[in-house]
Amino acid sequence: MRLVVGTCLSLAALIALAACGLERIGGGPAAGGGADAAGGGGPGAPDGAAPGDAGADALAKCDPLACEGKRCVDGACGYFASCRELHNDVPVGVAGTGVHKLGKPGAVFDAFCEMTIAGGGWTLAGESHGNLSSTPDFGWNAASGSLSDTSRPYSLDVVGRGVPFTEVLAVTGRRDAIVIAYLVTPPPGFPSAHRRSGAGAVASVLLNPSCKDATGDRPDMLSNMGYSDRKDLFFFRDNKDEDTFGLEPDGWETNDYDDCPKDGRIAGKQGAVFVR
Fold it and tell me: What is the DSSP annotation of 33-96?
């Protein structure tokens, strides 16, 4: 009898263990409504979330208008490389004419953006001023001055900053009070292909033309650009063989011309150069 009872107890124990195992296999996570049963996104994901939702949420949480550079890159705040890119992606009411942050993380800089003339998106490359205590670096590949100090010449160094552009705006007046503006198309490969040479450019009247020549509107002294390694001027001239004349730290120097159509009446005036 003891043997029979003992045998029955063993069978009962085996049955209980089997029942417990079945419950653990079939009734665990599913019974609790876990992620796998509900189609969730795996460990750490909220119930019902798809596998890619975490990344999408991160992207959705980056508000470009709350970022210093008005841009989101891979879910994090970033920056535009030029005023043109900023203008194309951000409403003018948010990114209007004025100083904005450009560049990339670790290499951010202030730039003045002109957002209205000829469609906007112009980055200030350099601005002259008659107040010279010394001759500062000035030109396509030169940095000097400060945007906050408008009593001195200013040069951004568009080459060193890596600002992309295919158009140039040569103007008289101040950055925020432009009087005459000429749209200039640089020669192919500018500025890198013309570090120590000049080449033909195409200039046309854009704003408040003071004169026009026989071809329509092409000031001769803006018909060549180059010498982008120079650190004393933005070179513009009626020929490419002499690396003088253009916008200097204290204003436009055009070989003493002051007539139409030779220089478009910019000689001796304060001015600026923008790029887009």
Answer: T-HHHHT--STTPPTT--TTHHHHHHHHH--GGGSTTSEEETTEEE--SSHHHHHHHS-TTTS-
